[in-house]
Amino acid sequence: MTCPQHHKLSVYADHQMPPAERARFDRHLQGCPLCQQRLNDIAALRNGLRKLPSPRLGFDLAAQLNDRLCAQPPGMRPAAGRWLGWVPAGLATGLALASGVWMGGVLLGAGAARAPSASLVRVFDPVPPGGLCAAAEICRLSKGMP
């Protein structure tokens, strides 16, 4: 077995590895000092993180946020308050839909697209109009063009 990637070592250290894979991994660890050292480093990191102090806020943030989310703005009735908030979004959606239909009508009403005339296409010819050919092969390329 080749040495596993770091995330596999982390899965092993967290005891999240399936039993069959864990047994294979145990056999590898017995003969690989590099993986043993990496696993010890992961364990030391976990222990160091557990020793860090947990900050105390001094108040219940979840309760305050829940109170703010559930509180109704002053002066709004409960039934009207729920639907009144959707009015600007509905107006914007209707305006966007109407302008899309209008623009589509303008584009379709302008007529079908036309192919450019042959003289415009000649701009991309390898030999400019009125120019002399530097080689006979170049002049034959534009032979099929009008």
Describe the structure in brief:
The protein has eight helices and no strands. By secondary structure, it is an all-alpha fold. The mean pLDDT is 77.
Which terms summarize this structure?
mainly alpha, 146 residues, flat
Helix content: 55-70%
Q: How much strand content do the residues show?
A: under 5%
Stretches where pLDDT is under 50 for at least 5 consecutive residues are none
Global outline:
flat
What would the average pLDDT be, to the nearest integer?
77
Number of helices: 8
N-C termini distance: 70 Å
Topology (SSEs and partners):
Layout (H helix, E strand, L loop, with lengths): L5 H8 L5 H13 L1 H19 L9 H10 L7 H7 L2 H23 L8 H4 L14 H6 L5
Helix pairs in contact: 1-3
Word description of this protein:
This protein is an all-alpha fold and 146 residues long. The protein is 62% helix and 0% strand. The protein is built from eight helices and no strands. It has helices at residues 6-13, 19-31, 33-51, 61-70, 78-84, 87-109, 118-121, 136-141. It is flat, with a radius of gyration of 37 Å. It starts with 5 loop residues before the first helix and ends in a 5-residue tail after the last helix. The model has no long low-confidence stretch (mean pLDDT 77).
